[in-house]
Amino acid sequence: GEDVEQSLFLSVREGDSSVINCTYTDSSSTYLYWYKQEPGAGLQLLTYIFSNMDMKQDQRLTVLLNKKDKHLSLRIADTQTGDSAIYFCAESPRWMDSSYKLIFGSGTRLLVRP
Amino acid sequence: DTGVSQDPRHKITKRGQNVTFRCDPISEHNRLYWYRQTLGQGPEFLTYFQNEAQLEKSRLLSDRFSAERPKGSFSTLEIQRTEQGDSAMYLCASSRGQENTEAFFGQGTRLTVV
Predict the structure, then answer these.
(1) Where does residue B3 fall: left (phi above 0), alpha (psi -120 to 50 degrees), or beta otherwise?
(2) Selected residue with higher pLDDT from A26 and A85
């Protein structure tokens, strides 16, 4: 089945690192994504990782993938108040599915305290 | 090209009325997706088009919902006989359709059924 789970809420102090975790179920997903949604806005792709990778770093963002445990995490270094938003993990199942549709988690609300 | 455009941004309608939303994807993107997002949840896949062909529909898309993409460019999503449970944000996304190209999201249409 297809299911993506995330913790609901994370609060950090400005300048600290944030780690947002996600578990997924579909082992056929070859790409896993992190999206950011600010209030009243659409979704912005932050980064993605291919399933044959363990880690991907992009400026302040680090994605870690544990394929055995189907666990994905997003680390934001030096978190800023502008990073306050909802972060969605998404998988793109590929088994018998060429739509490339995204299956999203419920989102983690990140609050950055000054 | 300014990205994926959705119209209207907000719609308030009385229960039982029909509503239609429009999505203009990024030009030359041959894939177009509709998602629905309710409060506190991640987006859920509704349907997708490759060019003008509607290739997949979610079980969430009841008989009251219909989507079209007549010329393979813009798309419309119509909801007939709206119900309060239809209140949600309706998001449109488009992509080039290659295995891992970014899906760009519009800002969504927020529907409130009263």
Answers:
(1) left
(2) A85
CA–CA distances in Å: residue A71 to residues A79, A94, B6, B27, B53: 22, 18, 34, 35, 35
* DSSP summary character for residue B85: G
**In this structure, what DSSP letter does residue A1 have?**
-
Tokens for A38, please give them: 């600010």
Give the C-alpha distances (Å, rounded to integers) separating B96 from A4, A43, B31: 25, 17, 6
Chain A residues near residue B42 by CB distance under 8 angstroms: 4, 88, 90, 104-107
Angle at A59 between CA A56 and CA A64, to 5 degrees: 25
Using the Cβ of B21 and the Cβ atoms of chain A, whether some distance falls under 8 Å is answered with no
Q: What is the DSSP string of B28-76?
A: T--EEEEEEE-TTS--EEEEEEETTEEEEE-TTS-TTEEEE-TTSS-EE
Q: Are B107 and A105 inside 8 Å of each other by CB?
A: no
- Partnered with residue B6 across adjacent β-strands are B23
User: Would you tell me which residues 47-66 of chain A have a C-beta closer than 8 angstroms to some C-beta of chain B?
Assistant: 48, 50
| Residue A50 in tokens | 């291919």
Pick from A30, A40, A106: which is nearest to B41 by CB?
A: A106
Which residue on chain A is closest to B38 by alpha carbon?
A106
Q: How far apart are CA A110 and CA A35, in angstroms?
A: 13
Distance from CA of B60 to the nearest CA of A (A): 14
Each residue of B14-59: pLDDT tens digit? 999 999 999 999 998 999 999 999 998 999 999 999 999 999 999 9
Separation between Cα atoms, residue A12 and residue A77, nearest integer Å: 11
